[in-house]
């Protein structure tokens, strides 16, 4: 296990160095840039953490497929309800603001 960790660190270091070389030195040569970048991603994915990342990605993809997305009618109905509730609450807050402002004006004018 310790040997694997050591090799994984070396793989990550190799990949990071490759990516940095590709980014800073080989910007103009797109094919070598893509080759180094692809090689680095591949090396990262064969490490223990890379395998865990692939499993996480597969599980996330399965989870997204299992989500029940709302239909267009449900979205429209929900949007209408939200807009109406916001409109009604804004009117209520406007009325309360007007009443409180009036009461404050009356209190200030009495003094």
Outline the structure in words:
The chain is an all-alpha fold and 111 residues long. The chain folds into two domains: 2-66; 68-111. Helices cover 87% and strands 0% of the residues. The chain is built from four helices and no strands. It has helices spanning 2-24, 30-45, 48-66, 72-110. The longest helix is centred in the last third of the chain and has 39 residues, at 72-110. The model has no long low-confidence stretch (mean pLDDT 85).
Total helices: the number is 4
Structural class: mainly alpha
Number of structural domains:
2
Quick one: biggest sheet?
none
Radius of gyration, in angstroms, nearest whole number: 30 Å
Oligomer: single chain
State the helicity in percent bands: over 70%
Overall mean pLDDT = 85
Element pattern in H and E:
HHHH
Low-confidence stretches: none
Number of strands: 0
């Amino acid at each position: 296990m310790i040997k694997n960790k050591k090799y994984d660190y070396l793989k990550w270091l190799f990949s990071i160095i490759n990516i940095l070389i590709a980014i800073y030195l080989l910007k103009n040569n797109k094919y070598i840039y893509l080759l180094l970048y692809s090689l680095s991603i591949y090396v990262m994915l064969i490490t223990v953490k890379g395998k865990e990342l692939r499993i996480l990605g597969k599980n996330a993809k399965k989870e997204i497929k299992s989500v029940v997305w709302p239909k267009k009618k449900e979205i429209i109905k929900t949007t209408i309800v939200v807009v109406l509730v916001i409109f009604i609450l804004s009117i209520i807050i406007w009325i309360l603001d007007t009443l409180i402002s009036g009461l404050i004006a009356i209190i200030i004018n009495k003094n």
